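Re: that chain you flagged

S.,

Sorry for the slow reply, it's been a week of failed gels. I finally had a moment to sit down with the sequence you sent. For the record, here it is as I used it:
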Amino acid sequence: MKAADDPRAAAFVPEASAEVLIRLPPIRVRTGASEVAAFLRETADARTCGVVPVTFPARWLALPALRGVILQLIGGDGLLPVHEGQSFAYEHELRIETDYIIAVEARRTAKPPRLTLKIAVSTGQGESCAHLETVLRIVPLNLEPAS
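Prediction finished late last night. Pasting the structure tokens below so you have them in one place:
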């Protein structure tokens, strides 16, 4: 899926100097057992199923709605998001095979050029579980061969 195909992201193409704040509508996510197990394997976590790793919500950044907004807010071709920082703060651990609601705030700043995503995770009943923050530095992609 291209970023422009996501209706929530299509209207957000910032100027390089623009500071932009976007709040997405709530998104339903799930901590499915097979996805958690795959995450544990792929991150070389020695634990077996039964535990949702604290870093598991990072995979939600790849959801089409979030990915589309990230791509749009980066600002176009020739720019690359570089992972600068990430934090996870939990009020309650996440449970396997449970639905959650995430509220996402994406802020694009011009100086320095970066995209900060803040994600609040809550139960369907509104109980807060976690707050996450991911910072992506936006750098020019140099396609010229090194001399």
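What I noticed first: The chain has a mean pLDDT of 85.

Talk soon,
D.
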